[in-house]
Amino acid sequence: MATQPKQADTRPWQGITVVENLLNAHEQQAIYRFLASGGWGYGWRSHSGEGAQSFWHKHFAGAIGDTVEPQEGKKPNIGCEAELASKAPLLHVFWQQLSQTALKGHVLQRCYANGLPYGSDGATHTDSLEPGACTAVYYPHEKWDPDWGGETILFNQEKDDILAAIYPKPNRLLLFPGFVHHVARGVSRVCPTMRITLMFKTRVKPE
Predict the structure, then answer these.
(1) Cα–Cα distances in Å, from 179 out to 27, 92, 135?
(2) 44-84 per-position pLDDT tens digit
(3) For 74-139, what is the HEC assignment?
(4) Following DSSP, what letter does each residue of 150-180 receive, concatenated?
(5) Torsion of CA 138, 89, 206, 9, to 10 degrees
(6) Smallest Cα–Cα separation from 112: which of 61, 53, 70?
(7) What is the pTM of this model?
(8) Distance CA 110, CA 151 (A)
């Protein structure tokens, strides 16, 4: 894995950051092919409330649920890096790079992928209200067309306006605090593929 992004485009919107061209072409292709292969499950939802639809997913490490609370008996700064190394070595190498660059000073709490084919939609939600919680979304596709849709929409606290609409540009990384309301918009009927995103849920290490 490359030790530094080729180019960095940081745009702060209340803690929201976008990093461009994160991996080299070979690394990006390896990540995408790994994620696009079999092993998908179905049934996760963005939240447990009314109207939230189920979508496809792959779980790699960490607790399954809406919280990044540490498991009983474990300190919050231990994280799930060892589990990720065991279950998905390729993604562990990716995480090691992020932990030295864009997510330096963070502890990995959870790693998984989501899949939205045409006809599936996300629901507006927050990931965690815990202090220091952060979500990193990587867009692994080798190409994407603006007519395919699939943007990540981030809302203000009142959910009455959009802070940012993030296009799922290949090889892009989106970072935002866990308390930010957001939703993955579904893809259009002309989209020939499933929208795949790779998530790293983290917490800032206590000082």
Answers:
(1) 30, 25, 9
(2) 667 766 666 777 899 999 987 644 344 444 455 579 999 99
(3) CCCCCCCHHHHHHHCHHHHHHHHHHHHCCCCCEEEEEEEEEEECCCCCCCCECCCCCCCEEEEEEE
(4) --EEEE-TTSSSEEEEE---TTEEEEEETTS
(5) -30
(6) 61
(7) 0.86
(8) 22
Q: Is 184 helix (H, G, I), strand (E, B) or coil?
A: strand
Residue appearing with tokens 């296009």: 167
Radius of gyration of the chain (CA): 16
First CA to last CA distance, the chain? 28
Starting at the edge strand found earlier in the chain, the sheet holding 162-166 runs 162-166, 152-155, 182-184
Q: Is the torsion defined by CA of 57, 180, 98, 81 positive or negative?
A: negative
